[in-house]
Each structure stands twice: as C-alpha cells, then as structure tokens.
Specification:
Layout (H helix, E strand, L loop, with lengths): L3 E8 L4 H20 L5 E8 L8 H10 L3 E5 L7 H11 L4 E5 L3 E3 L3 H11 L3 E10 L4 E2 L2 E2 L4 H9 L2 H6 L1 H7 L9 E4 L1 E2 L3 E5 H6 L12 H10 L3 E12 L9 H18 L5
Parallel strand pairs: 1-2, 1-4, 2-3, 6-12
Antiparallel strand pairs: 4-11, 5-12, 6-7, 6-11, 8-10, 9-12
Helix pairs in contact: 1-2, 9-10
Length: 272
C-alpha cells in the first residue's frame, strides 16, 4: 500500500533566507523518503497569514525554486493565527502522515524516514517530537512537563541572574534528564516540528480555535494524549532558529499571556 505525507507551513513575514533553508532541507528529506519507498508522494500546503504580502513574487519564487513537489498557497483575507492557519491546511490535505513545521526549522535528511519508522513500529503513537538544536548548536528541549504560571514567567521574562538562581525549576520543566532514546511517555511538546499519524490528527480535529498564537501546541498535545501516545524520537533531528515571546515586542507578550490564561482555564491552573 502506498503511503503519503502532507505538510503544513504557516508563514507571517517570514525571513526568506530561513524559509529557503526550511524548504530545501525538507525537500531533501522527502526526496530521500521517496527513494527509500517510505512514501509515494508529499503535498505541501502553505498559509500566508500576512495580508500585506499577498501575491508576493519573492515568496512564489522561493516555493517554486526550493520545493520540487506539489504545493498549494493559501492567502486568506485576514491573519488566521498559527493553529487556525494549520487547520486550513490540514482540512485541505491530511494524508497518512502529516507534518506541522515552522518556517525557521531545518531538518536532517533522514528525519522523514525515521519518523515514519517510529510510527509504523509503534501503532499507538499518534505524534512524535524530534531531537532539536538551536542555531548555536545547543540542545533545545521540546518535551515539557505540565507548566506552572511561575515557571512560564521565569522562563519568558525573568533576568538571567534570577534564572540561574532558580535553574532547577527550569530544568524540571524542560525535561532535561530525558534519556537519548525513544520515549513514548511524553505528555506535552513544543510545536515547531510535530509529526503525526494522519488518523490521530483528524481524530482530535487539529488545533483548537481558542488559541490565536502560543499554547496551541500544548493544548493539542494534551488532547491527543487522551487517545494516543506521544513519542520523543532522537533519531529525528532538526535545527530550530526561533525565538521566545519576550523578545518579540509588546503585542507578542500580550498574546502569550492571553493564550496562557486560555490554556490554564482549559486544562487546570498550576501556580508553582
């Protein structure tokens, strides 16, 4: 039976050089997976949430140059937000496997093959998260424990000296002691790269419309975990060039706080 992969990519004033790297590395991984007969095809759906960039020739050139397969570009009349942008793509095309990826992520050549192997060998796994490193080569911890208000504030906004003093709490939240082997007992994961069994993603109806930006990945993790397992797979490797809300200005801070409030209201408050 031929299996297929779909990919959704939501962009908003994305750095074109990073976007080129994302598409180029993903294209390489997809071509390799096809050569190894892991997938028959891959369809990419892009949602451009920046209305000012509608019809951008520069964007179209990037997609046509760095992506060899089929793709469709949606340019809605308003910014749908992160989760709803991906839902537009998911509702349009969700295959046997589906990858949600950020436009500031590059993937290893074997990322797609190793992700598919994990899901095929572990039927209860509905989503997996990769081994991620930052642009400077440091490890990034995508797997998380259930957050507290205190830890989120500390991680996002506290001065570095305070973070050093309270480093134990941060390390516990980021699961830094997680062994470098496959674990299928993950509860929450950050969403820059989320590889799904298509059935599982459709089963939970994708992302919640409660979240415009931030915490939609945590909410999805908790809802998916009710029916499926989430796996950490260190053989699936990525590099993530993204930043945090506190570094992105007042609007992003407000969105972060509002989404945190929505998350805790939905799943339970934890203060410390």
């Amino acid at each position: 039976m031929s299996l297929n992969l779909s990919v959704s990519l939501v962009i908003y004033r994305s750095d074109l050089k990073l976007l080129q790297q994302t598409l180029s590395s993903l294209n390489q991984a997809v071509v390799f997976a096809k050569q190894q007969k892991k997938i028959a095809g891959c369809f990419l759906t892009i949602v451009n949430n920046c209305t000012q960039d509608k019809g951008s020739q520069a964007l179209n050139t990037v997609f046509c140059t760095y992506w060899d397969g089929e793709f469709k570009l949606y340019e809605p009349d308003q910014n749908l937000g992160y989760g709803m942008g991906h839902n537009l793509a998911i509702n349009h095309c969700c295959k046997d496997f589906h990858l949600v990826i950020n436009p500031d992520v590059t993937v290893d050549k074997r990322a797609v093959i190793n992700a598919i192997d994990c899901i095929e060998n572990n039927p209860q796994v509905g989503m997996l998260t990769p081994l991620s490193q930052k642009a400077n080569g440091q490890k990034e911890y995508l797997c998380k424990s259930y957050p507290s208000v205190f830890v989120l504030f500390l991680r996002g906004f506290a001065p570095s000296k305070i973070k050093i003093l309270l480093n134990r709490q941060l390390l516990a939240y980021e699961l830094t002691e997680l062994p470098e082997k496959i674990s299928t007992e993950i509860n929450i994961t950050s969403g820059c790269f989320m590889f799904f069994k298509g059935e599982a993603l459709k089963n939970i109806n994708g992302f919640s419309d409660k979240f415009f930006l931030y915490f939609e990945d945590f909410d999805l993790s908790i809802r998916l975990k009710q029916h499926w397992k989430i796996a950490y797979v260190p053989d699936v490797k990525i590099t993530h060039y993204g930043g945090r809300a506190a570094k992105k200005g007042v609007l992003h801070i407000k969105l972060f706080i509002y989404s945190a409030w929505q998350f805790f209201n939905s799943h339970g408050w934890k203060w410390v």
